[in-house]
Amino acid sequence: xxxxxxxxxxxxxxxxxxxxxxxxxxxxxxxxxxxxxxxxxxxxxxxxxxxxxxxxxxxxxxxxxxxxxxxxxxxxxxxxxxxxxxxxxxxxxxxxxxxxxxxxxxxxxxxxxxxxxxxxxxxxxxxxxxxxxxxxxxxxxxxxxxxxxxxxxxxxxxxxxxxxxxxxxxxxxxxxxxxxxxxxxxxxxxxxxxxxxxxxxxxx
Length: 204
Hints:
Oligomer: single chain
CATH class: Alpha Beta
Distance between the termini: 13 Å
Number of domains: 1
Strand order of the largest sheet: 2-1-3-4-12-11-10
Number of helices: 6
């Protein structure tokens, strides 16, 4: 059966590339701004491109903050990409007055480099027996998470200093890179996430 992956339509993401990647997985992408779908669907992707404040305002405007926290608390398979990962955090230097979802107890900070954003391929290092595989992925970001939060498995990379490339806690995965445009490495990463065990989600 062709399974669905729902993608949060934040209005500030390159949704076409994420949809194309889901199609390459042999699954059906579905865009949604419906809080009920976000809360209970089997698999959900939270993408994002742009500023932290604009991303959080988009979630608030669609009344999705509570639904996102609810599904993550229940460990339903969720993937946050780029700005999506940053919005899971408590706060960001980019928008000091904006509050994030607070799922990750961490603050996003600006690269200490005259060359931002970084646009290109970075090598990702990971634990040999962990969820993440080592390899090269494509990044496009000016801000990053530098400290590994407690209770999360991490993969790291380096640009103007080490930072967190990806995080996992159970069925919740977040990545600063863009797996949808990271070639074979990105597709392998998406396949591993999409194969995570379903628990309470409905096959909607």
